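Protein in question passed on here:
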Amino acid sequence: MANQYERISTDLRHQITSGELAEGDRLPAETELAKRYKVSVPTVRQGVGVLQSEGLLEKQHGRGTFVRRQPTPVTRTNLRHQWEKDRARESESERLKTGATEHDTGLTVNDLVFDAKYDRVPASAELAAAFDVPEGTMLLERIYRTRHSDELTPFNVSRSYLPLELVEPNPDLLREDLEPWPGGTQNQLFTLGIELDRIVETFRARPPTPEETEELGLPVGVSVVILRKTSIDTTDRVVEISDVVLPGDRTEIVYTTKLDRW
């Protein structure tokens, strides 16, 4: 049997998902909700807190509790990597038509606002071990943020690392002003004669830092998923490492594993 606060959260959730309560609508005062559900105010707060942690409600200081505008959902599948590889050798006109973010969100290029920041950084002990290079080896760090033009927060924050010596033969790859690059990283590597053999992705969840909460617009209680993506070429060399912070309230991760038949 559901607890009293669960009954409240279930009812309010239904009102939101059915459209009875629309985005931007203000909830009645806690005292009014307490009377409606015949419970105490602390129980109301507990029920409302559940929906805050799910990202359905948000409290605005001095104004009340409102139905939260839902950010654009992102579905990330493991099939995206082969999709990116297949288009890496396409013509520039074909590569310009769409990108990985559009693939994951169903949006168009015109819906998006893209930001890239490049820097040269020495490899930490962890990154040096992953790349199998000496600590302090210079890397090209690329920080990517992409958001819907109607939203203030990005879909994620991605930090990509490439050995600087690897990309220097193509000076265009050192220019952040050429982003978003048609065809993404796999095409960039293709310009260097590099073909990827496999991509290894590991995921872990944790509470967000205060900076991540602010930048990603996370509701109270929502975790982030940390993705480490390691790209390995056909000579078994690690050529790129990306650390991606994925907000838990708008990201769905779908993996399809093809099994050999008996």
